[in-house]
Task: structure prediction
Amino acid sequence: MRDLVILGSTGSIGVQALEIVRNHPDKFRVVALAAGSSNYPLLAQQAQEFGVPIVATSGERSPLTSLIKGEVIDGPSAASQVASIPCDIVLNGITGSIGLGPTLSALSSGNKVALANKESLVAGGELVTAFGRDRIIPVDSEHSALAQAMRSGAVSEIKKVILTASGGPFRKRKELSDVTLEDALAHPTWSMGTVVTINSATMVNKGLEVIEAHHLFAIPYRSIETVIHPQSIVHSMIEFKDGSTIAQASPPNMKGPIAYAISEGERLSSVMPAIDWSMSSSWDFEPLDNERFPAVELAKRCGELGTAVTAMYNAANEEAVAAFITGKIGFLGIVDLLERVVQKLGGGAISQVRNLDDVSAIENDARTLARELMGV
Result:
């Protein structure tokens, strides 16, 4: 029986994690939940169903106290507080760089982290990995695939890793200047939250995943490649120095990677449908068009400059996506803004991120400049 703390329980990752817990009650016990203030009824329902003794929210506790029997913790540090509760695994499904604090809190308390919050590594890579990479279990499908494929050989035998990308809704669309919010949210294979779906459309999400892979596996940026695979069946691959390639394949369903992470590599039964080999199918692969989607190469350049610059990349993107959602900038303006922020601030970046305060200062500078450049 593994004790779980789930951060971001009302989001896509959290909801699917609880479905896995529901189907395997002999494997998991949920000891705490944390979520924002946007869906109190669902958070209360989750706490009641799974008998969770501690619930945390970044909003006010008053709406929750009348809905649940357990302890309620509220405020901006609530997720960090419950992340430090002694347990087997903390699943961090929070979206955005606000997830870094809870990740560090969990690790500093001796907990392992099933990490779906890629921004923790993008904004604070060295801070997170200082606790040991063996304490961080990837949840993103691409990085889960890499972790599984790495069982086939030693790290010293790896030539390169290949992250697959669906290509998003605009893989074949030539004109991107008139993309609407509705267009950007129409992802062809994955059902995700608004921000992640827009990041997938711009390919910023893949840029973040390149940075994440670098920190998770200590792989040089020059050895990380991205390839378009629209079917989203092969989640990532590893090419070994003898020329062989090991791929991990499964239908586009996040329950597999979530279950693999929270069970620490134990393969649970009936987590998701398997590939149906009785049906004809084709898997396509094509190179990423870096001219149309420059976000990945920009992420690599930022990564080579250091964590301070990748933190800028992420913070500027969060501001740009928020502006796109509200109609303040166009779709192409998102990555253009990232480039401008990084160019202006990257040269004078702190060479080493020493603590969470450094990350906050860097992000604030990037957010402020992004708003100035957008005129908002």
In short: The chain has a mean pLDDT of 92. The CA atoms of residues 83 and 106 lie 5 Å apart. The radius of gyration is 20 Å. The first strand starts at residue 2 and ends at 7.
